[in-house]
Amino acid sequence: MAETPRFFNEMDGSGEKPRAPYARYCDWFADEPPERLRRKAREAETFFRRTGITFNVYGAADADERLIPFDVVPRIISGKEWARLTKGIEQRVRAINAFLHDIYHRQEILRAGRIPVDLIQNNDAFLPKMIGVVPPAKVYTHIVGVDLVRTSENEFFVLEDNARTPSGVSYMLENRETMLHMFPELFTKIRVRPVSDYPKSLRRSLAACAPAACTGRPVVAVLTPGIHNSAYYEHAFLADQMGAELVEGHDLRVVDGRIAMRTTLGYTPIDVLYRRVDDDYLDPLNFRPDSMLGVPGILDVYRAGGITIANAPGTGIADDKAIYSYMPDIVQFYTGEKPILKNVPTWRCSEPSSLSYVLEHLHELVVKEVHGSGGYGMLVGPAASKKEIEAFRAKLQARPSAYIAQPTLALSTVPILTRAGLAPRHVDLRPFVLVSPDGIEITPGGLTRVALKKGSLVVNSSQGGGTKDTWVLEE
Fold this sequence. Notes:
By secondary structure, the chain is of the alpha+beta class.
C-alpha cells in the first residue's frame, strides 16, 4: 500500500491521476516537448527583464533590484473551489471594515470584552487622530489582499490579512499577460476567467468612494514614495493602467482646503489618492515630522472631507498579527456568522502561558513579528539552526508582546518546471479585493507565490520565492 504524501499536491491529488481542474492541462503538457517548455521559460524571463518587472530588496549586498522568478506551470483552481473561497473572503473583508469603523467610533467590541482594550490602545498601528472620522462612502479598506494557504482537498486557511497597502497585483496581471503571449493555444483549450479588467475595476471602485467635495468626474492619483521603493514598478504600472497620475509627496500641496497636484497648468485638485506610503510618513505635520514622502496637512484635509485616502489612515491595525488571532471572534461579532475561512491556530506570546509553550517548542513553530511583513523578522523553527533558534529565544524573552507563533502547516504543493521535469513546491495565494459602496469585488485568481527551493515553506519574493499565473476555471 502506497504511503500517503505528507503534502497535498494540487495537480496530482492522490497521485493516481490528475485532479479534475488540471486534467486538460495535463493532457496538453503530455504532448509538449520538454525543450519547448524550457525555451518558453527563458523567453518569459527575458520578457520580464525587458519590461522592467522588478522589485527592490532592502539590505541586499549584491543588488537592490531583482526579477521575481516566474514559473510557467499555472496554478489551477476550479470554479466550485473559487466560489467557496470568495464567500469566505467577502465575509472576512466586511468584518474587517466593520471592525475598523467600530474601534474608531463606539468601540462596542471592546465594551463586550471580545478583544482586550490594551491590544488596541497600546498598538502602534492604532491612530487616535482617526477617532470619530467617517471615511467617504464609509469604506476603510478599499483594496485588500487576503493571504490563503491550503492543506488538503477541502481545507483552506487565512494566513494573514493585508489591509494597509497590499502589493503584488501588478505581478498577477503581468503573469497572465505572459502566459497568454507564451501559450495562446492553452487558453483556447481551457476556459480560464480573465483578470485583465482589474485596473478598470480599481479605477471605478476608487472613483465610487470620492469625497463630498468632488465635483464632476473624480480625479484619481497614486502616491508613491519614489523609485527606490520596493514596489515602485507596481505603483507606476497601476497608475498607467488606470489612467491616473503618479505623484510623489513633493508634487502635492494644500490649496483652498483641497489636496492639489502640480501640473503644467498649475495645481489641480485630487479627489481620490491611492496611497502607497505608510501612515507614519503620510503627513509630517501629524505623524513623523522628518518625513519627506508625504504631504503636510493632508490628514486635516481628509478629516474635513476634502479628499479620499485609500486605504484609510489607521487601517494598519487590521494587519496586526495579534489582532489576526482574534479574527474568528471579529467575524462572528460583526456578521453574526461563523467564519467560513479558518484562521491558523495562533499563540499570542504576550500571554505568559502561550510564551512558555512557544519557548519550549521553538523548533516546531513559525514565529512572526506582530507588525512584520515580507517574510522578514520571522523564524521557521523546523528549518532553523540551533544558533538561530537561540537568538530568537532571546528576542522573544526580551519583547514577548512583539511576536505570535503558529504551527508549521503542511502547505499544499503545485509543480514547477525544473531541468529534470516537474517538481512539487509549496505555494500560497493572495486574492485581491476591491471595496466600494457598490459592493465587494474579488478578482478571479490572485497572486500565487511559490517557494522555489525544495522543501522551503517561505514563498516571499524577498526571501527567494517566485510567482505563478493563477487560473480560476469557468464553471
